[in-house]
Amino acid sequence: MVADEILLELLHAELVNYVCSSECKESAGQLNKHCNLSTLEYFGFSTGYKLIERFTKDWPRLTTELDTIKFICTDFWSSIYKKSIDNLRTNHQGVYVLHDQAFRFLAKISNGTQYLDSAPLYIAFTSGLLRGALANLGINSIVTAEVQPMPACKFHIQVLRNQIT
Amino acid sequence: MAVCVAIIGKENAPKFIRCTDRDQELDFHYKVHSSLDIIEEKLLAASHPKATEPREQFLGMLYATEEHKIYGYVTNTKMKIIIVIDANHQALRDNEIRAMFRKLHGAYADAVCNPFYIPGDQVTSKKFTETVLSLLVKS
Predict the structure, then answer these.
(1) A97 to each of A112, A119, A142, A155, how far by Cα in Å?
(2) Cα separation of A130 and A13, whole Å?
(3) Packing angle between helix B94-112 and helix B126-135, nearest 10 degrees?
(4) Is the pTM of this model over 0.90?
(5) Do A53 and B109 count as a contact with CB atoms less than 8 A apart?
(6) How many CB pairs under 8 A join A and B?
(7) Residues in B touching A62 (Cβ below 8 Å)
(8) Class of the domain covering A3-163
(9) How high is the pLDDT of residue B133?
(10) Can you give the residue range of the structural domain that contains B87?
(11) Which of B64, B130, B131, B137 has the alpha carbon at shortest distance from B101?
(12) Can you tell me which family this protein belongs to (chain B) (predicted)?
């Protein structure tokens, strides 16, 4: 792998480490699955919110919700994770399921069940990223993530329609 | 060159407005405000499923008065940029206006990416102000 592609992974792993060790002082040193994920999620949110302003700069206007989600799945995703989402499902009523077969942040820790407990730590940032990106594009949503057998991962996006302005 | 540049946020609240003549600022506030309705109209027309127009961020000229021409631009994040041009000034081509908008959008994206900027706040970035001032007519 080219060196600059791995930098993001290293930075992200360090971010997870930092948040965990600063929040769970009593169990410092080891990743604790009871760590507060909301800090990581918030980091993701503000990153996504700011990033999307730049990403969509030279893009034709996205008008429909589905267009926006498709943009997130392909261009946004591949510029961060070097691959696009493998499968997108929707019930056309505001629920979208993004399925990534080999999620980049999990790929390195999924050779067995050893790190299964800490998997949520590694997807919290990305759920925040999605939520932030969508929020700035005018879609308020709840994003939850689900780890399939690692390194596969599913992100559920539930759009909150009544709050759309 | 422009006589007034305005940044309007998602909820149509002004985030930044700057014009060449301070005494006319209120007048420009009115003009920018009334052009928001036209932007809304244009967006609504474009979001119609059968709309054939290319969905560009640049909306073209919104309207022209005797003194001014007003141009609009909407980003994907529903942020609006409005430029007011002096109608008596030499005619500017569409491409030049487009370039101005692109420059402003780039500067805005930079300002937003500042980690200390809180989304939804007024834009106070020095660099952004400099970019805007460079586009304004020197009088």
Answers:
(1) 25, 19, 12, 6
(2) 18
(3) 170
(4) no
(5) yes
(6) 50
(7) 55, 76
(8) alpha beta
(9) 86
(10) 2-135
(11) B131
(12) Belongs to the TRAPP small subunits family. Sedlin subfamily.
B47 part of contact set with chain A, CB < 8 Å: yes
Residue spans of chain A under pLDDT 50: 28-29, 164-165
- How confident is the model over A5-46, as pLDDT tens digits? 788 888 888 888 888 777 665 554 455 555 677 888 888 888
Q: Would you say B42 and B59 are in contact if contact means Cβ atoms under 8 Å apart?
A: yes
The per-residue pLDDT for range B54-81, each reduced to its tens digit, is: 677 888 788 888 888 888 888 888 888 9
Looking at this predicted complex, what is its ipTM? 0.78
Q: Do B75 and A57 touch (CB under 8 A)?
A: yes
- Can you read off the two tokens belonging to residue B78? 């529903």
Query: Dihedral, CA atoms, B91, B56, B128, B108, nearest 10 degrees?
Result: 170
- Other CB atoms closer than 10 Å to residue A2's CB: what's the count? 6
CA atoms within 13 A on the CB side of B53: 15
Asked if residues A76 and A49 have their Cβ atoms less than 8 Å apart, the reply is: no
- CATH value at residue B9: 3.30.450.70
What is the domain count for chain B? 1
